[in-house]
Amino acid sequence: QSVLTQPPSVSATPGQNVTISCSGRSSNIGNNYVSWYQQFPGTAPQLLIYENDKRPSVIPDRFSGSKSGTSATLGITGLQTGDEADYYCGTWDSSLSAGVFGGGTKLTVL
Amino acid sequence: EVQLVESGGGLVQPGGSLRLSCAASGLIFSDFGMSWVRQFPGKGLEWVANIKKDGSEKYYVGSVKGRFTISRDNAKNSLYLQMNNLRAEDTALYYCARGAKSFAYWGLGTLVTVSS
Predict the structure, then answer these.
(1) Which residues of A touch B59 (CB under 8 A)?
(2) Cβ atoms B74, B86 nearer than 8 A
(3) Residues of chain A found within 8 Å of residue B35, distances taken between Cβ atoms
(4) From A33, A56, A104, residue closest to B104, measured CB to CB
(5) Both ends of chain A: CA-CA distance in Å?
(6) 3 state SS of B91
(7) Which residues, other chains included, contact A71 with Cβ-Cβ below 8 Å and sequence gap of 6+?
(8) CB B47 to CB A46 under 8 A?
(9) Distance CA B69, CA B80 (A)
(10) Rounded distance between C-alpha atoms, residue B34 and residue B49, angstroms
(11) E strand or H helix at A71, and its extent?
(12) Could you report the per-residue pLDDT of A27-79, keeping only the tens digit for each?
């Protein structure tokens, strides 16, 4: 059971927009920055979003992040087949003094 | 270009030990906190441990406290994870990552298998 809660899967068709939620509590999301990672099968994760809503320069602006209270959301606009991957949220938990991840969400682009 | 290269994984019996290493290049290693993150076979990510840039503070996930030790050698641009009293449930792909709380760069990982 992961500390952060994500839906196991989401699906959409090319061109559509999709959001992936990440739910936590005050000790983690509520008081710490959230990051999002994309992972393709057999490869290492890649940072998509850091500090809740910032994108590394190599990440296209189709990807966005937001946070409200104890929840965070990853948004992807104009879905492409190449976006099909696993997505993880992560943050620090101040009560545990440990990093925590969500269980991951498998995005299927039909 | 930032590169993180893990090594030291392998097959070990329960109760055994391994020392993982991560060689960093393309960055000023001493400027960054570093972490180990593992991924269980076919499953999600688990943060394992981190260490501040000067090595002054270290944190661990509860399941490895007292068994794993993270360390670094800034002169050698290297990060380490000493793993003792290994259990079957430690079987995973272990990644080295730049950052203490957010991970901008990752290595390719080194596989640790704990089995008799």
Answers:
(1) 97-99
(2) no
(3) 99
(4) A56
(5) 28
(6) coil
(7) A21, A22, A23, A24, A29
(8) no
(9) 8
(10) 9
(11) strand A71-76
(12) 999 999 999 999 999 999 999 999 999 999 999 999 999 999 999 999 999 99
Residue of B nearest to A35 (CA): B102
What share of chain A has pLDDT > 70, as a percent?
100
Contact call for residues A40 and A32 (beta carbons, < 8 A):
no
Which distant-in-sequence residues (6+ apart) come within 8 Å of B18 by Cβ? B8, B9, B10, B12, B83, B86, B112
**Sign of the C-alpha dihedral computed for residues A51, A54, A57 and A58 taken in this order:** positive
Measured distance CA(B68)–CA(B47) in Å, rounded: 13
Residues of chain B with Cβ-Cβ distance to A103 below 8 Å are 44
Q: Please work out, in degrees rounded to the nearest 5, the angle formed at the alpha carbon of residue B99 by the alpha carbons of B31 and B30.
A: 20
C-alpha–C-alpha distance, residues B41 and B47, integer Å:
15
Tell me, yes or no, if A87 comes closer than 8 A to chain B by beta carbon. Answer: no
**Among residues A109, A104, A98, which one has the least CA distance to residue A38?**
A104
**Quick one: pLDDT band at residue B32, thresholds 50, 70, 90?**
very high
CB A105 within 8 A of CB A87: yes
| B68-73 vs B78-83, strand pairing mode | antiparallel
Residue A60 structure tokens: 């296209």
Nearest C-alpha in A relative to B106: A44
Question: Residue B22 — very low, low, confident or very high, per pLDDT cuts 50/70/90?
Answer: very high
